[in-house]
Design goal:
Layout: H1 2-9, E1 23-24, H2 37-48, E2 60-65, H3 70-81, E3 92-98, E4 107-109, E5 115-118, E6 121-125, H4 127-136, E7 140-141, H5 144-148, H6 157-163, E8 169-175, H7 180-190, E9 198-203, H8 212-228, H9 231-242, H10 256-267, E10 272-281, E11 295-303, H11 317-335, E12 358-364, E13 367-374, H12 381-394
Parallel strand pairs: 1-5, 2-9, 3-8, 3-9, 4-7, 6-8
Antiparallel strand pairs: 2-11, 4-8, 5-6, 10-11, 12-13
Helix pairs in contact: 2-3, 7-10, 8-9, 11-12
């Protein structure tokens, strides 16, 4: 009844669902967010009101935002959207979230409707692009059931309509699989569109149903993994949380497939930086309690206007040998309980001292023995190599500690 009343009273539509199949009607107005246009605007205004001094950026490539009820997570979502210049005109906004209703072997892209309805009006679907993706890739399809009641994308639409000063078009994508192999394929298919012309909005809540303290613990680990930019680190932390015995924890991130898609996209783009904006959980709301909560993070992924010159570098044979020595002797020092000499024993050139991501891989008899790395870092390369050598030897969950 909430749905039909809203549609019938909205002047921009004037038809109900049975009369116009081109408009996807609201599904969760009146539950997750207000169905009344003016009450909704007031709630959005309240969520953005303390963010007016936030510097708006022109180079935001993606955001990760929650999809819970606005009284629980609205401020967290607004904190990420507020970082985007409202006048920045993106060609398309790719909305990617998890399916709460169906499973499939890929993702459902909604080309069934030309518009999505909200209490603030209609927002256009880029149906031609949606149809092209479905046609070109076997793991994309259009499932009516995947989108009709799904809230994770609808929740984001009023934020987009309220914040941006122009009309844009969306590509609604619901991922119905946890297969890492398929998610990597989805990311590869979307890679041509992960550019300066488009914005990616990733919809995900985080920990589900631990205590307040348990949520803060697991969400911190999951959030830190996202900030590394590494898909593998993200997957490792999800597994670690599952095995950590956190009471009540059902999942570390309900939208892990959508987040993983973004991490695969961004890890291949060398100009991406990741910034954490806000964390809260439902226990922070006056409507929640602390015995069983859901966690909410917000992030922005930004593009540097141009690659810094320091990113374009090569290592000499001597510098490569120094890194190899640092990696090996870091592990040996740990095993022998000796202090590691950072500078006295090594020729730390300018190239070895710039901030740079790195992976360290250990092999034994030509077989993998450990591999961990970071993409997004602030420490110098030689320190990252030391840290990743230790992590590969003693923190890779796939292998026992090196002896």
């Amino acid at each position: 009844m909430i749905m039909s009343k809203l549609i019938l009273s909205d002047s921009c539509l004037g038809k109900d669902e049975s009369e116009n199949k081109e408009i996807r009607p609201v599904a969760v107005a009146g539950t997750f967010y207000p169905k009344d246009k003016y009450i909704l605007i007031k709630q959005l205004k309240d969520s953005f009101k303390d963010l007016t001094e936030q510097k708006a950026l022109n180079n935001v490539a993606a955001v990760i935002v929650p999809h819970a009820g606005y009284v629980f997570s609205g401020d967290v979502a607004a904190s990420a959207f507020a970082m985007i210049n409202p006048k920045k005109e993106y060609d398309h906004i790719f909305l990617i979230g998890p399916s709460h209703y169906i499973n499939n072997n890929g993702a459902s892209i909604n080309d069934e409707y030309s518009f999505y309805q909200t209490p603030l009006g209609k927002i256009k679907v880029a149906t031609e692009l949606c149809s092209r993706l479905i046609k070109d890739y076997p793991f994309f399809s259009c499932s009516h059931d995947a989108h009709q009641k799904e809230h994770c994308l609808e929740i984001q639409l009023p934020f987009i309509q309220y914040h941006f000063t122009y009309e844009t078009s969306i590509i609604p994508i619901i991922i119905g699989t946890q297969s890492v192999h398929i998610i990597r394929k989805i990311a590869n298919a979307l890679k041509p569109y992960f550019n300066k012309k488009n914005l990616f909005v990733i919809s995900s809540d985080f920990s589900h149903y631990p205590t307040y303290d348990g949520a803060e613990k697991s969400d911190k680990k999951t959030g830190d993994a996202i900030e590394t930019g590494s898909p593998n680190k993200f997957l490792q932390v999800l597994e670690q949380n599952d095995n950590a015995g956190i009471s009540g924890l059902v999942t570390s991130a309900c939208g892990q497939s959508a987040i993983l898609t973004l991490l695969y996209l961004s890890s291949d783009a060398k100009d991406i930086s990741i910034k954490h904006i806000m964390y809260r959980n439902s226990g922070d709301s006056k409507y929640g309690d602390k015995s069983s909560v859901v966690g909410y993070h917000s992030y922005i992924f930004t593009r540097n206007r141009s690659l810094p010159e320091k990113m374009i570098f090569s290592l000499s044979d001597n510098e490569k040998n120094e890194l190899l020595k640092i990696a090996r002797e870091s592990i040996v020092s740990k095993l022998e309980n000796k202090e590691f000499p950072y500078s006295s024993s090594y020729n730390l050139t300018k190239m070895l001292s710039i901030p740079c991501g790195a992976f360290v891989t250990l092999n034994k008899n030509l077989k993998l023995r450990g591999c961990i790395g970071l993409f997004v870092v602030h420490d110098p390369l030689y320190k990252i190599v030391r840290k990743m050598a230790l992590a590969s030897a003693f923190e890779d969950p796939r292998f026992p500690d090196v002896e």
